[in-house]
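Listing S7. Sequence submitted for prediction.
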Amino acid sequence: MRIASNGDAREVETPRASGSAPGLDSSNSGRAGRAESVSELPNAVLVFRDGRSQEIRKYVIAGGSVFIPSDYWTTGSWTQKIPIADVDVPETLKRNQQRGAKFALPSNPNEVMMRP
């Protein structure tokens, strides 16, 4: 860095964080380390009343149904709609708790739950 004072120009060295490249702010380098240390969430599981189960990664729960993104080419639809009435709720909550997956149902009709 060059500082000019009364026509004098002199070089002043600014301290850098160790290991950082010139021009990089050391406060930004911590963000990348934190992003790498975040582990992926385990898949949630839905257990149906008939005993079958389905693992899901992303979902939205609204209006009494679970909406799951789907592959149009294999299922014929963009979104799968599963009524909560078809789900064995106590078993679903129990299995997700055992897996460490956070799965919760809305507490009132106007609430929407989602997992991006």
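Caption to Listing S7: primary sequence and predicted structure tokens for the chain studied. Residues 26-37 form the longest helix (12 residues). Confidence is low (pLDDT under 50) at residues 1-5, 14-31, 33-38.
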